[in-house]
From TrEMBL:
Name of protein: Aminopyrimidine aminohydrolase
Subunit structure: Homotetramer.
Organism in which the protein naturally occurs: Anaerococcus octavius
E.C. code: 3.5.99.2
Enzymatic reactions: thiamine + H2O = 5-(2-hydroxyethyl)-4-methylthiazole + 4-amino-5-hydroxymethyl-2-methylpyrimidine + H(+); 4-amino-5-aminomethyl-2-methylpyrimidine + H2O = 4-amino-5-hydroxymethyl-2-methylpyrimidine + NH4(+)
Lineage: Bacteria, Bacillati, Bacillota, Tissierellia, Tissierellales
Length: 226
């Protein structure tokens, strides 16, 4: 059996996940000191990010060549819309942000750039492009969730415990494994040139992951108030 695609790109990709894990936003969630306003910015921005992200799974479902692949994309779509976004809705409720306000969040510049890039890559290419465009999202959060859960007391934190619990849960771990398996299956037997292009999509979305943390930490929207 040939080497799995995700194993082959791992040495490069892990540097991105480590940088995300070491970002002050993530570190401060881990020790409970993160400013709640920064976290609220994440909840709102991430909610509208996930609406666009969910579309990728729908695109993948329609581009899939066989039923098994359709099922995997559909499972991902269900997981994002109902399991992952429930976390955001539950936090929003605690913060007295109603669901209409949450859904009406204006995506920031980085958020818009990230989702536009993903959707463009997903729409322009074959089904393997869709799997590549959505992978950094689940892979990085799964890495971060599992690492944060190892910090003593982090799972019990009154503010960030449920975040860490969800992203380190079996359900989310399964969702990410499903995305990784999809990528590996769709990358099988692809020529080197195409594998390089898929790797590039994963690296670029990985950079966007880092920038998303930074955007939330600095509560950025767009550069000029109008
Ligand atoms: C920006 C971003 N990346 C990844 C995830 C994990 O699904 C998320 N919720 N938001």
């Amino acid at each position: 059996m040939s080497e799995k695609f995700t194993d082959r790109i791992y040495p490069r990709i892990i540097k991105l996940w480590e940088a995300c894990f070491n970002h002050p936003f993530v570190q401060e969630m881990g020790n409970g000191s993160l400013d709640l306003d920064k976290f609220k910015h994440w909840i709102k921005q991430d909610y509208v990010y996930l609406i666009e992200y969910a579309r990728l799974f729908a695109i993948g479902t329609s581009k899939a060549a066989d039923l098994e692949t359709m099922n995997s994309f559909a499972k991902g779509l269900d997981g994002v819309l109902f399991m992952e976004m429930d976390l955001h809705r539950s936090y929003a409720k605690d913060f007295s942000i109603n669901e209409d306000e949450l859904e009406a969040t204006e995506p920031s510049a980085i958020n818009t750039a990230y989702t536009s890039y993903m959707l463009n890559k997903a729409q322009a290419g074959g089904v393997e492009n869709v799997a590549a465009a959505l992978l950094a999202c689940s892979w990085s959060y799964s890495y971060i969730g599992l690492k944060l859960a190892e910090i003593p007391g982090a799972l019990e934190d009154k503010n960030y415990g449920s975040w860490i619990e969800m992203y380190s849960s079996k359900e989310f771990t399964d969702l990410n494994e499903n995305a990784m398996e999809l990528m590996n299956k769709l990358a099988e037997d692809k020529p080197e040139r195409e594998l390089k292009a898929l790797e590039e999509i994963i690296v670029k979305t990985g950079y966007f992951e880092y920038m998303f943390w930074d955007m939330c930490y600095n509560k950025e929207t767009w550069s000029i108030d109008l």
